[in-house]
Amino acid sequence: MKAESAESNILGYSQGSPTVLRILLGTQLRRLRTEMGISREDAGYAIRASHAKISRLELGQVSFKERDVADLLTLYGVHSPAERAPLLELARQANAPGWWHKYGDLLPSWFEVYIGLEGAASVIRTYENQFMPGLLQSPAYARAVIRLAHERTPEEEIERRVKLRMTRQDRLVGDRPLKLWAVIDEAVVRRSPGGGPEVMREQIQHLLDMTARPNVTVQLMPFDRGGHAAAGGPFTILRFPERELPDVVYMEQLTSALYLDKPAESEHYMQVMDRLSIQAESPAETRRFLEKL
Q1: Residues 41 and 159 in one domain
Q2: Long-range contacts of residues 102-110, Cβ cutoff 8 Å, at least 24 apart
Q3: Of 26, 66, 85, 130, whose CA is between 20 and 30 Å from 273?
Q4: CATH number of the domain to which 142 belongs
Q5: Nearest to 281 by CA among 291, 268, 271
Q6: 206-220: buried (b, 16+ CB within 10 Å) or exposed (e) per residue?
Q7: CA angle 277, 185, 228 (to 5 degrees)
Q8: Domain count of the chain?
Q9: Do 26 and 48 belong to one domain?
Q10: What's the distance, CA 259 to chain centroid?
Q11: Range of the domain at 21
């Protein structure tokens, strides 16, 4: 695909999402590099950097310097101003701060990447086995979960973290809302993060309200189903409206996160999610379970 058409496709949908712009630009640069048979080491040498930085650039995990993009395009044989200009413009726009920039003091860099991806995704499928997915948490539940990891944090900062989480949920409303499909283990609705039974009651009612939306699907994996396909733990699959962007699998850890975007990897997780959806209660059965609970 020509660079200018790639730019028009992504800018047509993802304005204001620098993360997805970085990923698109990284994808284009990776394609150009592999087509020329150039190694990451040689590409890194061209911009006075390591092969690891080339890898991070191609994954959209770091910001771009316009000079580096220009040098890489020259190395990859892209000399026409008409082809260079859209990619250089992408580099400029990809460095713009996202809406979450004002929360930068609260966010580790690895999670900033996820928020950018979440803001640009058209479909998210997720499996959780301990806590309610962040996009489905009520304010009181979110506050209790945040306190678990930040028990000595001042109340003002706790409230900012809650506000950040609630703002992320804006993606579920609007003209082109995000489609969210969540499979949650029964433990999620049985185990309280704190705050007493009223917090869980409010959370379950909030979950029922959210599943009334046409773009939100929730399925419960009951205890009596025994072992299932996601024995390895929670994960999230993000899909984007731009065909140039691969699906991304996100797995969060205590102090870092893993992002997978190779088709073979994301396809494996998609198959696991499909099996989970078959094993779990249907959306209608899930609603009945939650109402009784």
Answers
A1: no
A2: 103/160, 103/164, 106/157, 106/160, 106/161, 106/164, 107/164, 108/255, 108/256, 110/256, 110/257
A3: 26
A4: 3.30.870
A5: 291
A6: bbeebbeeeebbbbb
A7: 55
A8: 2
A9: yes
A10: 9
A11: 3-96
For residue 263, count other CB atoms closer than 10 A to its CB: 11
Domain boundary among 96, 129, 152: 96
Whole-angstrom distance, CA of residue 171 vs CA of residue 24: 21
Give Rg (Cα) of the chain. Answer: 21
Average pLDDT, the chain: 88
Under a CB-based contact definition with an 8 Å cutoff, are residues 19 and 26 in contact? Answer: no
For residue 58, count CB atoms less than 10 angstroms from its CB and return exposed for 0-12, middle for 13-18, buried for 19 or more: buried
109: Cα separation from own chain's centroid: 13
Residue 162 near residue 139, CB atoms below 8 Å: yes
> Which of 51, 81, 96 is the last residue before a domain boundary?
96
As a residue count, the chain comes to: 293
**Same domain as 245, residue 134:** yes
Percent of the chain whose pLDDT exceeds 90? 58
Same domain, 118 and 86: no
Are 208 and 267 members of one domain? yes
Alpha helices in 154-262 (DSSP H): 155-168, 186-190, 197-211
Domain shared by 179 and 203, yes or no: yes
Tell me: the pLDDT tens digits for 122-178? 999 999 999 999 999 999 999 999 999 898 999 999 999 999 999 999 999 988 899
DSSP 137: -
Q: What tokens does 116 get?
A: 């950018």
Burial level of 57, CB count in 10 A (0-12/13-18/19+)?
buried
Q: Are 150 and 211 in contact (CB under 8 A)?
A: no
Q: Determine the pLDDT at residue 230.
A: 67
Please provide residue 223's backbone torsions phi and psi, each rounded to the nearest 5 degrees: -55, -35
What is the residue type of 141?
Y
